[in-house]
UniProtKB/TrEMBL annotation:
Matches recorded under PROSITE patterns: CENP_V_GFA
Presence of keyword Lyase: yes
Pfam families reported in the protein's UniProt record: GFA
UniProt keywords, alphabetically: Lyase, Metal-binding, Zinc
Domain of life per record: Eukaryota
Descriptive protein name: CENP-V/GFA domain-containing protein
Length: 166
């Protein structure tokens, strides 16, 4: 089995009791989450908004909003680049960071979340079960719903279509 197959089942969540490190595809950028509670409860959210679909190259992005202080980012080859996304649903620009060598999305930050950043969870060997989904009104009809998740119609913290059982 190639190492790059990335089977999350080869990484039991118990192995991340002290945090978890992930990298971009070319491994220039490594990101460590220093948080013992990554897998002790549901964490993070999926976002179905149009901008997240574009930058994730998929039908949803997998994000974790977390305190800056709990994240260590090492840019080994100086490849971390920023795109200022001004065309956002909220109207507030979002800084979107990615690896300029391999294009992997890394994180985003917004003046709406001071001291916080939103990590792109595809970087990591294992992704915690998400607690919520944003822009669920924009979900494709073929996508199965996730049980026990809180579904926000649009932005996080807004109208709830379905309350999760957390
Ligand atoms: Zn890279
Ligand atoms: Zn989004």
């Amino acid at each position: 089995m190639s190492q790059s197959s990335g089977d999350p089942n080869t990484y039991p969540s118990s192995s991340f009791a002290n945090g978890m490190t992930g990298t971009c595809l070319c491994k220039s950028i490594s990101v460590t989450i220093n948080d013992p509670d990554l897998f002790t409860k549901r964490r993070g959210h999926l976002c179905h908004c149009g901008n997240c679909r574009k930058i994730s190259g998929s039908f949803a992005s997998s994000n974790l909003i977390i305190d800056d202080a709990k994240v260590t980012i090492i840019d080994h080859q100086g490849t971390l680049k920023k795109y200022v996304d001004k065309d956002t649903g909220s109207g507030t620009p979002v800084d979107r960071y990615f690896c300029s060598t391999c294009s992997t999305p890394i994180k985003s930050t917004s003046p709406r979340g001071v001291g916080k950043l939103s990590l792109k969870m595809g970087l990591f060997p294992r992704i915690p079960a998400p607690e919520a989904e944003a822009f669920s009104a924009h979900r494709h009809e073929w996508e199965a719903g996730i049980q026990d998740i809180t579904s926000y119609k649009l932005g996080l913290g807004g109208e709830i279509l379905k309350q999760g059982q957390l």
